[in-house]
Write a structure and sequence with these properties.
three-stranded antiparallel beta sheet; alpha+beta; 356 residues; single chain
Length: 356
């Protein structure tokens, strides 16, 4: 038998349950005194890369799952593979063969693995090829993209010439928008050649940004907020742009037509610097926007624990919800901007020639 209740009563019940849970959690009569809340550790622990996947704490114990640690030693050469759980969150050392390892947390988030010699942690470490939280998320995003596009391609083969249905009907307008409004206006007759790369970049950044907004779920890593990831994406655009450049492009860089000859050496240096500053701007823009969004959301959430009062909770929750909605827009916007500027830079490297 279903009981119909009004929206007002439903909200009252939900908030009453929430406040009772918070009051129970803040009851110090039955639990030991907890250490002071460390906002820096919370924020940078989230946006940093880790060798395990910490989801939440329950009764003082971390809830999550370990990830594979892959270490390559050069002297002597060896490869050690084990799970990060053997470190017990950095409380223990791990000995494999001739080497002993220690996991050390970094101040700005993330972890490093160093050698231990004579019971002391050294400043040297092995080559770390571990499947960290960001690497795992990268593989997960790749799998999602393969499922999306392979499923969409098979749908077109099953129903050629027919209107799209289901997920295909949602994906097709997005693809056409990027192709017709972003790629083709910037690349013209060369658009088909670069469409696979630019579409891949757009969906990779968009899905990575969206997954970074999912709390307490495998996929909430700060992937595009890792400067190493944005650096690789920018390098791809840099290489494609310059390898696609025709003679007119390189002529404009080293000997710009119509420029007085005394200014040619100066402008050549400026143009060469511009080759690297454009992808550098791509890298920093994506990294900074995504990282800043995560820091703001976590800072607003932390206000509840900093003030230690329930009165601040409604204000904190309201602004967090506002920022989360804004981040949904930023997730798509940053993917669009990176794709549009990449298409623009590649298109500028293939001018059709100067008119007289």
């Amino acid at each position: 038998m279903l009981v119909k209740i009004s929206k007002r009563k439903f909200l009252i019940i939900c908030f009453s349950f929430l406040f009772s849970c918070i009051s129970f959690a803040n009851d110090d009569s039955s639990v030991e005194e907890k250490p002071a809340f460390n906002i820096n550790e919370t924020i940078f622990g989230h946006i940093g890369d880790n060798h395990d996947w910490h989801m939440w704490d329950y009764n003082g114990h971390a809830v999550g799952f370990p990830l594979p640690v892959i270490l390559v030693n050069t002297d002597p050469f060896s490869i050690d593979v084990f799970m990060s759980s053997e470190f017990e969150h950095g409380h223990k050392t791990v000995t494999k063969g001739d080497h002993t390892y220690k996991m050390v947390a970094k101040e700005m988030g993330g972890q490093d693995i160093f050698y231990v010699e004579n019971g002391e942690v050294t400043d040297k470490g092995p080559l770390d090829f571990s499947i960290t939280k960001n690497v795992f998320t990268l593989f997960l995003v790749a799998i999602i993209m393969l499922v999306m596009f392979i499923g969409c391609a098979r749908a077109y083969k099953r129903r050629p010439g027919q209107a799209p249905q289901g997920f295909q009907a949602w994906l097709e307008p997005v693809i056409l928008f990027i192709k017709e409004d972003v790629i083709e206006p910037n690349l013209g007759r060369h658009a088909d050649k670069y469409t696979p790369y630019l579409l891949t970049v757009f969906f990779f950044i968009w899905i990575s940004n969206m997954m970074g907004l999912i709390p307490f779920f495998p996929g909430s890593a700060n992937l595009t907020g890792n400067i190493a990831v944005t650096f690789v994406l920018a390098v791809f655009t840099l290489l494609i742009t310059n390898f696609s450049g025709n003679k007119e492009y390189w002529k404009d860089i080293f000997c710009m037509p119509g420029l007085p000859w005394p200014l040619i050496p100066i402008m050549a240096v400026v143009e060469v610097i511009g080759i690297f500053t454009k992808p550098f701007a791509l890298m920093i823009r994506l990294f900074a926007n995504i990282t800043a969004g995560h820091i703001i959301v976590l800072s607003l959430t932390s206000l509840i624990f900093i003030f230690g009062t329930l009165a601040i909770a409604p204000v904190s929750v309201f602004f967090v919800m506002f920022m989360d909605v804004l981040e949904l827009f930023v997730a798509a916007l940053q993917a669009y901007i990176f794709t549009m500027l990449s298409a623009l830079f590649i298109g500028l490297a293939m001018p059709e020639g100067h008119e007289a």
